[in-house]
Design goal:
little secondary structure, 18-stranded parallel sheet, about 10% strand, elongated, disordered C terminus, leucine-rich repeat, repeat, Leu-rich_rpt, LRR_dom_sf, SLRP
Length: about 475
């Protein structure tokens, strides 16, 4: 008997079956080429609970007007990744999960969801929806809706008439430019609001846009056009993502009412040291993580919260750590200062001693000439690669007996410059990266290359003489 060919492709349906057993409870026709559904494919099936039709070729013309006639108990309908321009008609009233993402939806017809009183999850992302394709009544009857995803559409402003019980609202990757005064304030249960990758400016957000949202704890507004921290931020927000905007400074009152922030990300803006008010963070007594990487800071800012556990200041232009800027930060566990312009002389004496809980210190890619002294005893990981360290003294690591990882590659170290006793007593050391053969100064490299070229020229001349 001939063996079946390994090149055979699995059978894929182009039409749904005309008739299926009335006892059917679940139907999965995902990842086919189905272009048409018949009236009795899913109709007259009282036990039917879930239908999966995603990744097919369905258009509006391929759906019967009453696709679920007398199949009123369907709870899950997945029709993502098709070619639908409109929400299917006469959807089962029992639905609690409806997926229509990655279609061609341009408009939601009036009353399309008006009978879906039990719907809890609605996925409409990656369509062609605009604000003109919806109105105040579109979602008005969805009183139990908790999850709504309208991301990756063509919205220019936050839609009005959103359901009051939404917990998670996705509006990212649109063209949203404004948030009016009353479009969000009625959503009293809102916890997650995702507005990243839009066109928001601070002046386009009404000062009272977030008023009364007492449960809102996570707000993503990164990758927008914010030129400053928006006013009227949610009072109980805990996670605030403002990275990749155009923010140039932090004023005294920007975070005046946001007492509960624990994670604040301001990285990759245009913040300058001179534009950070020394009292800007005074009310953030619960802040644990602050990220100001990728800005235009020339020095570590004053007034950093004392309760910080993680501080990220990498990829700035920091050339100094001024006196007492790290004072009182006894809870700090991780400090990232890589890709700056720090020198040993520009760090105030006793800076590291302040950080009695520090476990990770990243000073890679700076201009340090030797290992900083008086590092805290708690330190476990020390990153010093790509500096100008030429010598390791006997006492270089004596203050950090708990160190587990030391990274020193791409410095100016030579075997003669590493003292034998430099690593004595480091009984917990697990990783030592001290590769240095590539870390020759540029002048030395150029000199060597020139000498090599000269040698080659001399050899060629001698060959010609022969």
């Amino acid at each position: 008997m001939a063996e079946p060919s390994s090149n055979l492709k699995p059978l894929q349906l182009t039409l749904a079956p005309r008739f299926l057993p009335n006892s059917l409870m679940s139907a999965d026709f995902a990842a086919n080429y189905i272009t048409k559904i018949y009236g009795m494919t899913f109709g007259h099936k009282p036990s039917l609970r879930s239908v999966y039709l995603h990744n097919n070729k369905l258009t509006d013309a391929g759906l019967p007007d009453n696709m679920f006639n007398q199949s009123n108990n369907v709870e899950i309908l997945i029709m993502s990744s098709n070619f639908l321009k409109y929400v299917p008609r006469n959807l089962p009233a029992a639905l609690y999960k409806l997926h229509l993402r990655n279609n061609k939806l341009e408009k939601i017809p009036e009353g399309a969801f008006s009978h879906l009183f039990g719907l809890r999850e609605l996925y409409l992302q990656h369509n062609l929806l605009t604000n003109d394709g919806m109105n105040n009544e579109t979602f008005g009857k969805l009183t139990r809706l908790e999850y709504l995803d309208l991301s990756s559409n063509g919205l220019t402003h936050v839609p009005s008439g959103l359901p009051r019980n939404i917990v998670i609202l996705h509006l990212e990757k649109n063209n949203i430019r404004s948030i009016a005064v009353d479009v969000l304030t009625q959503i009293k249960n809102l916890e997650y609001l995702l507005l990243h990758n839009n066109r928001l400016r601070a002046r386009g957000i009404h000062p009272s846009a977030f008023q009364g949202l007492k449960k809102l704890h996570t707000l993503h507004m990164y990758n927008n056009l914010l030129e400053k921290v928006p006013g009227g931020l949610p009072r109980r927000v805990k996670t605030l993502m403002l990275l990749h905007n155009q923010i140039t400074g932090i004023s005294k009152d920007d975070f005046n009412t946001t007492y509960f922030i624990e994670d604040l990300n301001l990285s990759y803006n245009k913040i300058m040291s001179s534009s950070v008010h020394k009292e800007a963070f005074r009310k953030l007594r619960l802040l644990k993580t602050l990220d100001m990487s990728g800005n235009k800071l020339k020095s570590v800012p004053y007034g950093l919260p004392k309760n910080l556990e993680i501080l990220k200041l990498k990829e700035n232009e920091i050339s100094s750590i001024p006196q007492d800027t790290l004072a009182g930060m006894s809870k700090l566990k991780e400090l990232y200062l890589s890709f700056n312009k720090l020198k040993i002389s520009s760090i105030y004496t006793g800076a590291w001693a302040e950080l009695s809980s520090l476990q990770l210190l990243d000073l890679s890619t700076n201009q340090l000439s030797y290992v900083p002294s008086d590092l805290p005893e708690s330190l476990e990981y020390l990153y010093l690669q790509s500096n100008r360290i030429a010598t390791l003294f006997d006492s270089a690591f004596e203050s950090i007996p708990n160190i587990k990882g030391i990274f020193l590659r791409f410095n100016l170290l030579t075997p003669e410059a590493v003292k034998e006793s430099a690593f004595h007593g480091l009984d917990k050391l697990q990783v030592l990266d001290i590769e240095s053969h590539l870390a020759l100064p540029k002048v030395t490299k150029q000199k060597k290359e020139k000498e090599t070229e000269n040698d080659e020229d001399e050899e060629e001349e001698e060959e010609e003489d022969r």
